[in-house]
Hints:
It contains eleven helices and four strands, in the order αααααααααααββββ. It has 231 residues and is mainly α. It folds into three domains: 61 residues, no CATH class; 119 residues, no CATH class; 29 residues, no CATH class. β3 and β4 form a beta hairpin. α8 runs antiparallel to α9. The radius of gyration is 23 Å and the shape is globular. The termini are far apart.
Amino acid sequence: MNFNQAIQKLNKILSEKQPEKITRSWIVKNAPDVYRFIWKNVRAETGEIDWDRVTISMNRRFQKRWIYRKRLTKSKWKARLYEDQKEFEKVMEKYKDRLYTFLSFNNEDDWSMRDQISIAFVRIAQKGNTLAIREITNLLRFTIDFWIDHSYRIYNWRGYESEIQEQLKDCIRRYRFTGSFIGYLFKTLEYRGRGLRPLRAYSLDDQLFFGEKRRVENVVKDAETGKIRIY
């Protein structure tokens, strides 16, 4: 049995039995040979069973029925923060040559790889590894900035830097086994960005009047209030 055959067999059993909830215990009971294959051959960088690879390969209608562990609350996540360089390096070493996918992607393989890298970092970030939290938030900011520049559905977030960081960390904390993390992040920003008024960030070096002046030359101090105004 190979991975594709295992997933095909699992999907077939799921279609026949139509469980409301799917857990590893359910798979052990109803598809023991599939579970044995997964336990032996499908492992994440940290050594645990890579259930992300399994669930993202299942038929879409079954993905949201998957239950692995209780969702961590924000307070619990903060209480468990730690720094583990070895755990972090296991993921970084594997994907370091493909991190460019967060800046640009040329084909479907790059798109899929970006999601795979995201999920790998998200999983150890959810455990509380601060190195992973820092790395994945930095990488995903490149992706979010690209969306802001190119998607009208995300454009409203322009200028809301601190709010973006909070939404990003919340998505990392809340993400479960429901398919693409990148897709989950995009939809979250789309829905929560509705009604936001886009803010434009101005630079004092911006050129005005067809390049004849810079914005800094239009900085004026109000004589009465002492406030700085930019025209």
